[in-house]
Every structure is written in C-alpha cells, then in structure tokens.
C-alpha cells in the first residue's frame, strides 16, 4: 500500500536556505579582485624617540655656572652719590639779549595799480514851493517840522533854515540824526500815510546831505500814521540829534559848571 508524500518540515527548509546563502556568499567573495597599485601610499613612519639606553650613553652636561651663584651678585653694589642741585641759571641758561632799539615799523607799499574811487552820489536838490505851509520848531535834542496834509513840500523860508541847521550838524561829526516822519490818514489804509511820511523823510534828508552831513549819520524812518495817544501834530517830521558834541576849550578844561572867581586874600592890618 502506497503512503502519500509528506511535505518537508520547516526546520529542514530553513537549514537548506541557510546553506544555499552561505554557498552563494563564498562564490561572490571569490569573484572580488583588488589592485594594490591603485591604493594611496602610506605616510612615512615617524622616527622613534631616543631610547633610554641612548640617553644613558649620552647624558646632558650642565654648566657649573648655573649651579653656582654669580660672584658679582654676591658683592654688594656701592651706593651712587647724590648729584648736587643745579641752580636756576644753570637750568634755564643765560637770558636772551635785549635789542637796543625796537624793530622798525613795517611799511606797506602802495598798490602798483591805482584803484579808482567813486565819490558818493549827490542827493537830488529840493525845490522850494511858495504855497507850502511849514512850521519849524527847535527843541534841545533837535527840531520839529510840520507839513501840509498829504504833502512833502517846503517853502523857501523853511528850506533856508534847514540848510543852516544842516551846516551846523556837518560841523559836529559826532552827532547822529534820526528822522521820524509821520503822516495823518485812515487807519484802514496804513500804506498811504507811510508813503507820504517816506517822501517827507527823503526830502529833509536831501537837504541835510547837500548841506554837508554824511549819509552814514542820517537814519530816516517812515513811521506813517502816528498813535492815537500822540498829542503832537500828525503831519510832522522830528529830527533827533544824538551823540557827542565837541566842547569848548574852557568847558574841556574846567567842565560844564560855571567858573567862579576866588576872592583875593585880605591884607593883614
């Protein structure tokens, strides 16, 4: 009677698979080939340190000077004597020589090319108007000049007086003249009274310049409409003279106080 074939056991199957894997690995190793010439060269080997036997054959010789202290260090150094202090004249030295005469002043030569100087432009002459109504009032610090409304004209008498006053100011170069010009007008239109005041200031300025007063000493100011609290005439020009006035010889010596005579002493009886 025939028996049916049994399947192999799992253990035998695992052993057979392991044997076949080992056999295939040996055949794969047998096929690997190496080329020794293609490998990089190894670095040179380092020299070995001297062996103890070599060190024993060649011992180091230490100098005897290191073991023995220096003879100079054993001897004490002699103290350095103190140096004497130098006097002030020895430290600074001899004083410089003083020149017998002061140096000559430096003389600046004149320019080689003559520079043309331009004289100041003369002011335009002022023409008198016979119908103009002016009033000229003197006060300690200057004068006050009135005009017609909306006009800067001067009558012949006022123009002649202004020329004489300008000649007097020209003889006192220390004075500075300030011209304050006013003009009446509408408070809603401040430009019109200011233009009228400027025309009055320029007219009086021209008279003073033609009389010999330098332009650098005259300062015109067109104020225009005067303030409401001003009680002076509203159409006017004020000249304010400020500065130093040369004094007379007796005032420069004795002051401005009046001189008093000293009574002569009475004779003894």
For the record, the CATH class of the domain at 142-246 is Alpha Beta
- Enter the CATH topology name of the domain at 142-246: 60s Ribosomal Protein L30, Chain: A
How much of the sequence is in beta strands?
Answer: 5-15%
How many E-type strands?
Answer: 5
Q: What does this protein structure show overall?
A:
One of its GO terms (cellular component) is membrane. Keywords: Signal. Residues 96-105 have a biased composition (Pro residues). Residues 62-67 and 251-269 have low confidence and may be disordered. The chain has helices spanning 10-30, 52-57, 64-67, 71-74, 88-92, 156-170, 191-210, 249-254; strands at residues 135-139, 142-146, 175-182, 218-224, 236-243. Helix 6 packs across helix 7. It is α+β, with helices and mostly antiparallel strands. The longest helix has 21 residues, at 10-30. A five-stranded mixed sheet has the order 1-2-5-3-4, covered by helices on one side. Helix content is 30%, strand content 12%. Helix 7 (191-210) links the parallel strand 3 and strand 4.
Could you list some keywords that capture this structure?
single chain, 269 residues, alpha+beta, 60s Ribosomal Protein L30, Chain: A, 5-stranded mixed sheet, 5 strands, disordered C terminus, OmpA-like_sf, OmpA-like, signal
Give a brief outline of the structure:
It is built from eight helices and five strands. By secondary structure, it is an alpha+beta fold.
